């Protein structure tokens, strides 16, 4: 772990009151209190950068590199002026991919919102109560929080914590004479979508599901047990007829997003075109601020709900459709938010590398383990891979020109 990681989450000892609220609320037991040294410390190896401790600290002694209080307020104020809206919609990363169908999710709950301020966060539990009141005081009249269903929170306790804070805020608003309905909570978790008309009853999804959320039926197609489905996408990966997919990450949907992008990228810039598949839990800045993360680079980033859901076919398709290189960023086994069935991802990688090797394309694909707590590490690996592909592309051009001259 590099020294850069230590700056991602820090405790300001001068401000810390040793109340140990952060210690008691951390879902990963990453914060400890040393009574002899009278010091609260963060174990960066266990920390998942969920921000729950940050939002709970009563004296603002915890400092975060991502989505900090001031930047969130500035973002809301800036976007509110651009979209001219008084409704803020908070979206948890777990239930809202970058291709989020926010309006559809809200409509299912009877909430009609055409114009709103979108704010996507790693976890709803990182929103402090102060942020809610400050936002309402700034001109926002309605706040809707789209949270994962309690059992499916990727940070274990984030949804429950945010729900309690919203209830507390409602009570305070009501006592002050304000409309408590200004705060709304929507529970939503992304699930597998099943088209029984396409299903041939092979039951591959039954065997691959690491959460026993699919039940085989003797004389019918399998049954999805929605209350057990976590939307990991393992079932979609093995379905030979695309009868079962994760909403927002459908095969054809993903294919369309990168299918013609290589040509467009190269038309705008003669530099190599790269496609990056990124697990939505392994990297934050590249997914939420791609213009900054990929500045001066021809890179298209596509997120996946978990690396076990990434179809190896997309890597081969991307290279054949014009991308000069494909990279993938995934969580380590210890950091995986959907760790059940991780062996599926590892088997897929082994098969993919074998196929790419036979196609002489293996040197154009690389994958890395990444984590939001490793500040700058993703960009370093991207830079290295980009330079490698650029050098390979330039060599290929020189060789092609030399061959052409000899032919003439």
Overall tally of structural domains: 4
| Global outline | globular
Structural class: alpha/beta
How do the strands of the widest beta sheet line up side by side?
A: 6-5-7-8
CATH fold-level label of the largest domain? Rossmann fold
Q: Mind telling me which CATH architecture of the largest domain this is?
A: 3-Layer(aba) Sandwich
Walk me through the structure.
- Helices cover 37% and strands 19% of the residues.
- It has 4 domains: 3-64, Alpha-Beta Plaits (2-Layer Sandwich), CATH 3.30.70; 69-187, Rossmann fold (3-Layer(aba) Sandwich); 194-234 and 236-246, Alpha-Beta Plaits, CATH 3.30.70; 249-398, Rossmann fold (3-Layer(aba) Sandwich), CATH 3.40.50.
- It is globular.
- The protein is α/β, with parallel strands linked by helices.
- α13 packs parallel to α14 (342-358).
- The protein has helices at 21-25, 52-56, 69-83, 102-108, 129-137, 158-175, 204-208, 234-238, 251-259, 261-268, 285-288, 290-293, 312-320, 342-358, 377-407, and strands at 9-11, 31-34, 39-42, 62-64, 87-92, 117-121, 142-147, 183-187, 192-194, 214-217, 220-224, 244-246, 273-279, 298-304, 325-330, 365-369.
């Amino acid at each position: 772990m590099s020294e850069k990681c230590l700056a991602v989450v820090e405790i300001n000892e001068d401000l810390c009151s040793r109340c140990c609220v952060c210690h008691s609320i951390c879902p990963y037991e990453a914060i400890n209190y040393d009574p002899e040294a009278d010091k609260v410390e963060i174990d960066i190896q266990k920390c998942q950068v969920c921000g729950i401790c940050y939002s709970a600290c009563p004296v603002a002694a915890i400092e975060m590199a991502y989505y900090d209080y001031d930047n969130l307020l500035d973002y809301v104020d800036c976007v509110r002026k651009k979209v001219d809206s008084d409704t803020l919609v908070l979206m948890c990363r777990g239930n809202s991919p970058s291709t989020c169908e926010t309006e559809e999710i809200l409509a299912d709950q009877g909430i009609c919102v055409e114009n709103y301020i979108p704010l996507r966060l790693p976890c709803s539990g990182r929103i402090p109560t102060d942020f809610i009141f400050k936002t309402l005081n700034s001109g926002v009249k309605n706040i809707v929080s789209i949270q994962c269903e309690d059992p499916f929170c990727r940070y274990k306790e984030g949804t429950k914590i945010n729900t309690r804070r919203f209830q507390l805020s409602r009570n305070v608003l009501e006592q002050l004479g304000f409309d408590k309905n200004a705060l709304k909570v929507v529970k939503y978790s992304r699930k597998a979508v099943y088209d029984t008309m396409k299903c041939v009853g092979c039951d591959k999804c039954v065997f691959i599901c690491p959460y026993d959320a699919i039940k085989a039926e003797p004389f019918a197609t399998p049954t999805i047990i929605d209350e057990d489905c976590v939307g990991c996408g393992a079932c979609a990966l093995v379905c030979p007829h695309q009868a079962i997919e994760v909403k927002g990450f459908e095969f054809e949907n993903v294919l369309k997003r990168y299918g013609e992008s290589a040509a467009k990228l190269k038309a705008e810039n003669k530099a190599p075109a790269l496609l990056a598949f990124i697990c939505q839990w392994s990297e934050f800045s590249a997914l939420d601020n791609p213009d900054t993360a990929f500045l001066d680079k021809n890179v298209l980033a596509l997120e996946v709900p978990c690396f076990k859901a990434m179809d190896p076919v997309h890597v081969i398709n991307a290279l054949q459709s014009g991308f000069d290189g494909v990279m993938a960023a995934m969580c380590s086994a210890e950091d995986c938010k959907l760790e059940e069935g991780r062996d599926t991802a590892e088997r897929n990688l082994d098969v993919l590398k074998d196929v790419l090797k036979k196609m002489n394309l293996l040197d154009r694909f690389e994958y890395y383990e990444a984590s939001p707590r490793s500040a700058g590490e993703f960009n370093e690996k991207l830079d290295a891979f980009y330079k490698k592909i650029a050098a390979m592309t330039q060599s290929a051009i020189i060789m092609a020109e030399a061959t052409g001259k000899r032919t003439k």
